[in-house]
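Run Ig-like domain-containing protein through structure prediction, thanks.
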Amino acid sequence: TAAGGTPGYSYLWNTGETTEDLSNICAEIYCVTVTDTNLCTAVACITITEPSEALSVNIVGTDVLCYGDSTGAADLTVNGGTPAYSYLWDTGETSQDLSNIGADTFCVTVTDANSCTATACVTITEPPAPLIANIAGTDVDCNGAMNGAADLSVSDGTTPYSYLWNTGLTTEDLSNIPGGIYCVTVTDANGCSVIECVTITEPTLLTINIDSTQNVTWYGGNDGAAYITVNGGTTPYSYLWDAGYTTED
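Sure, done. The structure for Ig-like domain-containing protein is below.
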């Protein structure tokens, strides 16, 4: 603003501009020489400052450990600009950081006290598929035997896997086991777990009852008989008498 002297005034800035005012200028020292109608002059200077550092934003993401969970996080750090800052995430959140988030891409716009803005994005990942366990069971052949098996197959999640059966064993598979219900907890490298069970069956006890017999009616005869009933086990049955016969009766 020029006053005194004899209007009108002319202006000459050290930038070469001849307007009264300057706009859209960078941080610098600006001096202007004002000359009135009588060629009297006056000089004034002003220093235009700026924040010491440009506004910048950095996000450190924490990925989701288990497929489908919401254990991710976005930790935002702001530098430069002019505090205080405000935050607006594309989710609508206005907090500085995000927690308990699922896998996705998250972007934030940070605005400082001078309305300067900076934007940054982070992608939170998760395992490509959930941890899956399947058990193929082999049933026991005979009642009371221990020739059953449980063959475990595990896929997806994050290797390596660990195993804990309800029997206390920590092997992947079970062999030489009796009939029963067997459950395993599979845990992957990220601590994700899944439980799978299998029922190993066994036949009922194989039993033989002799229902009736018929004695030979004369010496050296062959009209004797023995009649039996078989229960349990697994049909069909085969027979072997100590006399060599292979029929049921």
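The chain has four domains: 10-48, 56-124, 132-200, 205-249.
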